[in-house]
Write a structure and sequence with these properties.
The protein has 502 residues and is mainly alpha-helical. 68% of the residues lie in helices and 2% in strands. Keywords: Membrane, Transmembrane, Transmembrane helix.
């Protein structure tokens, strides 16, 4: 009886943490300055595309890039931008769901839950700014990964944890795949691959498959068919360019992609190298292999700490990547390739149970599937496309951390430290966004025109805005004019632009 009571207390305590976490992000969304696609979907262009089923090539520079089959995310953006309270609820709820699902994929561990809660505050600046702090990108990339992680948790509970089968799983699974497949293209393709893999894997290992796997596949096929039936994918536009040239792929990787995928993710790199080091250190018998991996862990950790000290002084708000010489770009790219090889070799040599080993390989392969296409897509090319792959590397690190042995006093101290870091991270991010918000409100209240923003009028923390607060758009001018005509209580439920501008 006492054990059941204590378990209920811990469950309610966790629920309270998650509720406060979601409430924090809902409040944070109020002071995040909207930009770009946020205002595009709110304005006449969004209504125009809605009426034309999200397909038009009448103006490739302005509308053509937003002609796509992301029907769920587009509709979500249009509706929630006109009803701000919906955007606050979505922002809070999906922030909680992502970190909670990430923790549950690793297992029931308070340590991992705390690490997951810290996720947004450990992201590199390009990912934090162009996913979590940009609502349009948040809907596409954060919300999209929630649907992916939710189904992976179903598979994990079904195969590894042998959970009792739920009769509603087939309905839940088709819902997840229908929603997940109508958000962003590479997740649509990924869930098709996962659905086929799950059926084949269960058939091979269990000599059967589940009904929910079939319904997930059905939903994945239907959503892919709906998404890619949009005509924008079958005509050439200036927005989408693909090159199969190895030279072009290397240039993309060296100039920008490897920074977003590897170099700038310092906290993730330290989690990876640290967990790999201690997993080998805790082995009872040290060999040449373990010594080599441990040495490489230290070398990579030191290199990326020093390189980030240098790169932070050359950070560009135009690209959210360092602006350095081609020689240094190429050098850092090669180190990045060696780091990937180090991760692969470490995974091969790690002595962990079969379930963990399989999960680690699944994370690595998922990262490759989600990020690989963006090495041949020359445009658009930005950090946010790599977000899903990087999330799987966080999952990789958390799986290894779960293998480490902590004494109870050290574990308790570690949790206290993480709770303190979480509180500081929440406070710092909120204060910075509040400062940006009030500064932006002040200069947007004046008569402005589209174009560059004078440096004296820029917000205190421009790196927290997806465009670096370098310019304003015609959509932005119209948005802030409507914004200033109403107070908070009036625009909480409805914020519209004058219809004569439509």
């Amino acid at each position: 009886m006492f054990n059941n009571t204590w378990a209920n207390v811990k469950t309610h305590k966790t629920a309270l943490w998650l509720t406060l976490y979601g409430l924090y992000f809902a409040i944070l969304k109020i002071v995040i300055v909207p930009f770009g696609d946020d205002q595009f979907w709110w304005g006449p262009a969004g209504r125009f595309l809605l009426r034309h089923h999200f397909y038009t090539l009448s103006d490739q520079q302005y509308i053509g890039g937003s002609s796509n089959g992301r029907y769920l995310s587009n509709l979500t953006m249009i509706f929630s931008s006109h009803h701000p309270i919906v955007s606050y609820l979505i922002f809070g709820a999906f922030s909680v769901l992502l970190v909670y699902l990430l923790a549950r994929l690793v297992g029931k561990s308070k340590l991992i839950l705390f690490l997951s809660l810290l996720l947004p505050f450990t992201l590199s600046r390009p990912f934090l700014t162009t996913t979590w702090l940009w609502y349009a990108a948040f809907v596409n990339y954060v919300c999209g990964m929630v649907f992916i992680f939710a189904y992976l948790l179903i598979l994990k509970n079904d195969y590894f944890d042998q959970s009792k089968f739920n009769k509603y799983l087939p309905i839940i699974s088709i819902f997840l795949s229908l929603c997940g497949g109508l958000i962003v293209e590479h997740l649509t393709i990924y869930q098709l691959i996962v659905s086929l893999f799950a059926i084949g894997f269960f058939r091979l290992k269990k000599h059967r498959y589940r009904l929910h796997q079939l319904t997930y596949l059905l939903g994945a096929v239907i959503s892919a068919r709906i998404m890619f039936s949009n005509g924008s994918y079958w005509v050439h536009t200036s927005y989408r360019n693909i090159s199969l040239s190895t030279t072009a792929s290397w240039q993309i990787f060296a100039q920008t992609s490897h920074f977003w995928l590897i170099s700038l993710n310092l906290i993730l790199i330290l989690l990876l190298t640290g967990s790999i080091f201690f997993c080998n250190y805790q082995r009872t018998r040290q060999t040449f292999k373990t010594t080599l991996v441990m040495s490489l862990s230290v070398v990579f950790a030191i290199y990326y700490c020093l390189s980030n000290l240098y790169l932070r002084n050359h950070f560009s708000l135009n690209t959210f990547a360092p602006d350095i010489s081609k020689f240094l770009q190429g050098y850092d790219s090669l180190i990045g390739i060696f780091f990937v090889i180090y991760l692969i070799v470490s995974t091969v040599w790690l002595e962990v149970d079969a379930t963990t080993k399989f999960s680690l390989w699944f994370c690595l392969v998922s990262c490759v599937i989600l990020t690989g296409p963006f090495l041949i897509i020359t445009s658009p090319n930005s950090a946010r496309e790599f977000f899903g792959g990087v999330l799987f590397m966080y999952l990789f690190a958390f799986l290894l951390i779960r293998q480490l042995h902590f004494t109870r006093p050290n574990l308790r101290r570690f949790r206290t430290v993480m709770a303190s870091l979480l509180s500081l991270g929440c406070l710092a991010l909120l204060v910075a966004n509040v400062q940006n918000y009030h500064c932006f409100l002040e200069h947007s209240s004046r008569d402005v025109v589209p174009g560059a923003i004078a440096e004296v009028n820029q917000v205190p923390h421009p790196s927290l805005m997806p465009n670096g607060d370098l310019y304003t758009t015609s959509d932005g001018v119209r948005y802030w004019q409507a914004y200033h005509r109403s107070d908070f209580s009036q625009r909480l439920f409805k914020l519209d632009y004058p219809k004569n501008n439509d």
